[in-house]
Every structure is written in structure tokens, then in C-alpha cells.
Amino acid sequence: MLPGETSTPLPVAAEAYTPPDAPPCSCQKARRRSSRLIFKERSLSNSRAIQDGPMGFFEILPVEMIYNILYELSIVDLSILTIVSKAVRGLVECFMDSKRGEDRLLLRVSLHHPACQEHHASLMQHFRRLGVLHKRVTCLYTTRDRLRIMEQFIRKLDLLSCLSCSNHCLALTCYGRFLHTVIAGWDEMECLRVYAIINSHVQRRLTQVLQSAHGCHGDDELYLRLFYRRVLLDQCEHQLERAFWLSRMLKPLPMVHQARMLYLLFGPVCFQEDGAVWLEMGDAESNTPASTVVLAELGSAIKTLHNYCREWTEDDIIGVIEEVTALPETWTPENVARLLTLCGENICVKLLGSKAINGRLEELAEVIVHLAKVCVKEHYSTQWVIQVTRRVCRYMDIPADRRSFLMAIPQTFKEFLMDMHDDAGEDTDPTDLYYMLEAQTAFQTELMKVAFADLLNS
Q1: 446: closest CA among 397, 386, 396?
Q2: How far is CA 123 from CA 8, 120, 156, 173, 359, in A?
Q3: DSSP state, residue 330
Q4: For residues 402 and 396, is the Cβ–Cβ distance under 8 A?
């Protein structure tokens, strides 16, 4: 060191600074990890996922493998799986929406062709199980979302495109079985929303049929009959449920259309000619015991409305019967009497009582005469007619009216017998005269028994 110079320390080499997020140098060797350690860590991670996850072992499986497992399960097993937990229910729902789920749930057979009885039973069981599955999968959704999901599933099944199908088509029946299983236990307001959606499928056809002349749209008439009956009415297990759906169909309509709808649903129909047979009940040739079979369902429907629907008053029932028996022209008196016998004593008495109150005694006596004739033809007891006659007399406050009514009955018998005798020929059925004579004899005999019993009790 020279004199006058100060000593300065030598600079120390600074350590190289490496940013924390800088990539590792390529020249450095990667840290080796034991494959056994990797397997151990992965096993611990899977164990935590299985223990802490909501789906158990499904947490560690890929989606494709899970769908393959669910594909092998039956519909009943899938339904049970949906009530395990919310997460598993969501997993099953995703599976149902997938292509794999559609292949598992949707039948690859046509439902628009006739099937044997065993195949029909298996189809009903299949769609009932599908209904249970959908009911459980959508149990946490709102009614609107549940109906939307159900409608999407129905479109995939192609159950509504059967306008040109025959009476043996099973598509609508399967739809009805599925629907009633899904909505079982729903309250009335929810069922009203269900009906609004279902009715929207056929509202245009229904309006066209009701506003047109009878028989102009035979295909639509047949489709409406099959749709409403197989989807809503025929699947009901209880009369109260049947009355609810029937009332929903009829009550919003005017009375004329109510009667027409009733006849369309339950009246005589010809599937070969497509449509309801509107003129049959007004034809004298239909006055046969076979008409009882034809009118049995119509009488049962009217009884259901009367017995189980509070919104249907006595005047409503009487009005719709009078409208039905005038479609499209006035029925024969015997067919009117046959319908009244099928409706039951209470409805029959109320309708005849309204005629008595309005002073229509001749018409009333004519109905009583044909009630007696129908009872003889169908082998019913004539005592039923006597009971109806006695109850109708209570509607007449004036004794003179009761006397006139009771005297009009044998006179009506006499007139009908004379007319049938005068019109007897090759084209007439001789058994009609026999049945009328038998009816007169039986009615007078029972009436004499009642009068004699009342005399003894007085």
C-alpha cells in the first residue's frame, strides 16, 4: 500500500437471486419420488374422498364407469338408490338424462301395435316403475319443474303420436299408467296444473269437435275418447279420483257441450268407422238388452258425478241427462228408461220429480211405463218401479195431481198396447208386445200388493 492510500475491503460476491415463481433451471435434476410413496398418497387421498364424500366409492370412479354400473341396475334398484342421499339422487338424475340412461330406460319396441295379455301386463309394470323412479328423482323440485321434466320424458317415449292408431294401441295407456304413478298423493291444486298441461295437447281438437256437427270429425272424436279415458279416467283406482278428473273435463263447458262430451266418452262407438255412433239411441231397433251394455258406462259416469262431486247440483245432473237423451235427436222412450235404471233410483226419482213439479204428467207416466218394460226385459224386480212411483208421488202436493198421475199410467199402458197391436207386421218385433203385456201385468200386480198392504196398515 502506498502512503496516503486508504484500505478498502474487497467486494464480496453477492449470491444469485432467484424469483420465487421462476421456473426451475433445466440443468437441475428433478427430485425423485418413490412409486410406493405416490401410491400411498393416492390411497390416502381416495380414502379421505370415500369417507368424507357424499357418494362413497362413487367419488373415486370416473363418470363412464359409474354409468356402466347404473346401466346394469334394474329400475327398481335405481328408484331405491335415489332415496339414499341427495348427491346420489343427482347422480341418478344425470344418468337418466344421458344417452346411456335413455338406452336403459326407454323401450325400443313400438307401443302403437296390439300386444298379447302378458306383454300388456309387463308394459304396465314397466311404466309404473318408471313413474316411481321419476317421482323419487324429482321429489325436491317444484311442481312446475317436475311437470317440465315429466313432459320431456314423455316426448322421448313418443306416446302422444297415435292419432291413426287402432283401439289396441297401448301408447296412451302406458302414458296414463306413468302419469298416475307420478302424481299419486298430489293435492288438488297440483292436479289442476297437471290437467291444464295434459288438456293442452288436445284442446284444439276438442274445440273443433264440440263446435262442429256430430260425426264430422270421426278421427278426432275417437282420439279424444281414447286420450281422456286411457290417460285420465281408466287409470283411476277410486271413484273419488275418477269424479275429480271427470268434473275437470266437463264443468268448464256449457251444458250442451257437457252432454256431448259425456256421450263422446261413454256412449256407443264404432272403432272400424272411426267415431261415436250418434244416431243409435234414437233408433227403435236399438231397443234391445244389448243397449244396457252400451249405456252402462254412461250411467256409471253420471252416478259418479252425482255421488262424489259436490260442485254438481241436482239441477246440473238433471239438465245434463235431459241434454244427453236429446243428442243428436230425441232418444226412444225405452232407451231413456234404460239409462235411468242404470243411473240408480235416487237420480231417477229426482229427474222424474222435476217433471212432476213442472206438471208434465203424461210424459211422466210414459217414462214409468217404459221403466216397467225395461225391468221385465232385464229381469229386474218390478217392485223397483213401484218404489220409484211412490217416491215421485211425494213431489206432488195436490192430491188431484197424484190421482191424475196414477190414473195416467194404466191409460198409457193401454195406448202403447193398442199402437203396437195396430203396427204389428213383418217388420215389427213380436216380442215387444209380449214385454209390454208382461210389464203391465207385473206393474198392476205389484201396485195391488202395495195398495192392499197400505190398507191393512191404515
Answers
A1: 386
A2: 102, 5, 16, 10, 56
A3: P
A4: yes
